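Quick one, probably user error.
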């Protein structure tokens, strides 16, 4: 080997050995850099920069809420993303009420029935369904991602009945796997019977009939607080269909206000349950 080739080989080999150390040092320096601008006022991890998430963790926001919704048929009036719209409002309310939590992106695809032959909601166009094992793998990977970044409490809540068992199983599995991180399944968020009881006892509102649709006044009024188009309010008014289960959705402002009260009840109930779970005072969830 000539002197020149030997020198080039030695130099190249040295760079190959040193590069990983240099790259690691560069990464550590980058991770320690101060944020150059004010932080966005958001509790949604997907809306924040990585520096804003890092600083939120340093400030004590060490609870991450993983919410699960779905894309499914919800009758002739409600958008297929019904549960996701509810969670858009609910997770933000829960995180802000806790004061030390952030919301992971909503898991919008969940088990909705078999593909071939179609079953459950999969019998209706527009529904998207994951296999339970796929859903649980997604929840597991999301939970592990959050734990790797320093979140100390990973909370699973869902707005659909078919999601509950898988969330409970994943939370139990992750909790057994981790040492310094806790995983919690919080079923209180989905206890709709309590919401209807509140609507009756506190607001004096009862659904007098059942239209036989995958829809009700509670869910519709909450969705209207985000966007009346998600329940096709204007089209229903024009067609004389602005009611559900015997309750009118008009006037718009009244129904939106009722929806806000129902949502706040769910937020308050869930915040209470999360605090109890983190403190270790919550009862064992019934799966």
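Nope, works fine. Designed sequence:
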């Amino acid at each position: 080997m000539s002197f020149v080739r030997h020198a080039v080989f030695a130099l190249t080999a040295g760079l190959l050995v040193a590069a990983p150390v240099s790259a690691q040092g560069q990464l550590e320096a980058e991770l320690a850099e101060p944020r150059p601008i004010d932080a966005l006022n958001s509790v949604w991890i997907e809306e924040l920069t990585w520096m804003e998430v890092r600083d939120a963790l340093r400030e004590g926001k060490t609870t991450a809420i993983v919410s699960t919704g779905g894309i499914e048929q919800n009758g002739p009036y409600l958008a297929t993303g019904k549960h996701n719209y509810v969670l858009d409002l609910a997770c933000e309310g829960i995180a802000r009420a806790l004061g030390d939590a952030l919301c992971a992106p909503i898991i919008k695809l969940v088990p909705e029935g078999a593909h071939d032959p179609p079953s459950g909601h999969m019998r209706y166009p527009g529904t998207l369904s994951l296999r339970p094992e796929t859903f649980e793998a997604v929840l597991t990977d999301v939970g592990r991602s959050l734990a790797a970044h320093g979140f100390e409490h990973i909370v699973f809540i869902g707005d659909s009945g078919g999601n509950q068992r898988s969330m409970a199983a994943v939370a139990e599995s992750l909790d057994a796997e981790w040492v310094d991180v806790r995983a919690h399944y919080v079923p209180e968020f989905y206890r709709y019977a309590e919401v209807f009881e509140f609507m009756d006892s506190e607001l004096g509102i009862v659904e007098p009939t059942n239209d036989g649709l995958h829809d009700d006044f509670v869910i519709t009024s909450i969705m209207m607080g985000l966007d009346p188009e998600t329940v096709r309010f204007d089209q229903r008014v024009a067609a004389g269909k602005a009611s559900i289960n015997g309750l009118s959705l008009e006037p718009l402002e009244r129904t939106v206000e009722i929806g806000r009260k129902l949502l706040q009840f769910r937020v308050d109930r869930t915040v209470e349950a999360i605090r109890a779970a983190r403190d270790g005072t919550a009862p064992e969830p019934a799966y």
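The CA atoms of residues 1 and 7 lie 10 Å apart.
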